[in-house]
């Protein structure tokens, strides 16, 4: 089995692991991210991608959905057991199933082939503007002393980044927690998709704004909520979302 490059292609800067079995794509993407000031390494199969992510500790993984050995969904699932790196999934299928499945296992974003190198680099730059490992160990000053927030039987602890429903822990991805954190910090405010993108993904987002809807759907499912009950997250018609009362 061929192993990914043992060293990064450039010194300094955020580290990007590019995973695709089409070597022309891995070379092209690696060249562009290196030109943008990032370090790059490559993997071509699912098992090699997991091994490389564990060994190289990348900041971002650009991950193809269709890989030999393990598909991108399973690779994403395994990487999430040991890394909080940003994961941007590549898919040749422009359909809702591939988007929902990829994001449900912890991917932060997706992009559909064919894509422009400029757009891909812009997506990488957008996710890297989000603070990595934001939590109890190194939280923003604004949330260090915040008490837990309660909405009925839902409790959100911004400092420890823990969520419980009825005392039972709910395991959210980093992106899912960030969305819930933003909504719950201003429970009376109705956020548009663009406002949530700006607060969670930072400004400069160039992807599909409806990625917010996909993540909100996952949050609702994990909380035992839905669009009809809307106990925890309400849909504000023509605007976006706000917190429910629980």
UniProtKB/TrEMBL annotation:
Gene3D superfamilies: 3.40.50.2300, 6.10.250.690, Winged helix-like DNA-binding domain superfamily/Winged helix DNA-binding domain
Family annotation (InterPro entries): CheY-like_superfamily, OmpR/PhoB-type_DNA-bd, Sig_transdc_resp-reg_C-effctor, Sig_transdc_resp-reg_receiver, WalR-like, WH-like_DNA-bd_sf
Keyword match DNA-binding: yes
Alphabetic keyword roster: DNA-binding, Phosphoprotein, Transcription, Transcription regulation
Region (Disordered): 132-151
Residue ranges: DNA binding: 146-245
UniProt domain Response regulatory: residue ranges: 15-128
SUPFAM superfamilies: C-terminal effector domain of the bipartite response regulators, CheY-like
Domain of life: Bacteria
Pfam families: Response_reg, Trans_reg_C
UniProt modified residues of type 4-aspartylphosphate: 64
Transcription regulation listed as a keyword: yes
CDD domains named in the record: trans_reg_C
Database matches in SMART domains: REC, Trans_reg_C
Domain OmpR/PhoB-type residue range list: 146-245
Protein's UniProt name: Response regulator transcription factor
Organism: Ammonicoccus fulvus
């Amino acid at each position: 089995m061929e192993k990914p490059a043992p060293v990064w292609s450039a010194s300094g800067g955020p580290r990007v692991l590019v995973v695709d079995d089409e070597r022309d794509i891995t070379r092209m993407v690696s060249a562009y991210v290196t030109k943008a000031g990032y370090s790059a390494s490559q993997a071509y199969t699912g098992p090699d991608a997991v091994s490389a992510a564990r060994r190289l500790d990348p900041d971002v993984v650009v991950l193809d959905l269709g890989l030999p050995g393990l598909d991108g969904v399973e690779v994403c699932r395994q990487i999430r057991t040991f890394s909080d790196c940003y994961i941007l999934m590549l898919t040749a299928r422009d359909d809702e199933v591939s988007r929902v499945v990829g994001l449900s296992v912890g991917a932060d974003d997706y992009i559909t082939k064919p894509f422009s190198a400029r757009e891909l680099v812009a997506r990488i730059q957008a996710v890297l503007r989000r603070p990595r490992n934001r939590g109890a160990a190194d939280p923003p000053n604004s949330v260090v002393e915040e008490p837990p927030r309660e909405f009925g039987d839902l409790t959100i602890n911004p400092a420890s980044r823990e969520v419980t429903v009825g005392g039972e822990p709910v395991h959210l991805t980093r992106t899912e927690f960030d969305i819930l954190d933003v909504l719950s910090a201003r429970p009376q405010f109705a956020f548009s998709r663009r406002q949530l993108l700006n607060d969670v993904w930072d400004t400069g987002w160039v992807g599909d704004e409806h990625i917010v809807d996909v993540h909100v759907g996952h949050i609702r499912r994990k909380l035992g909520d839905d669009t009809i009950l809307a106990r925890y997250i309400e849909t504000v018609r023509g605007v976006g979302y706000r917190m429910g009362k629980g």
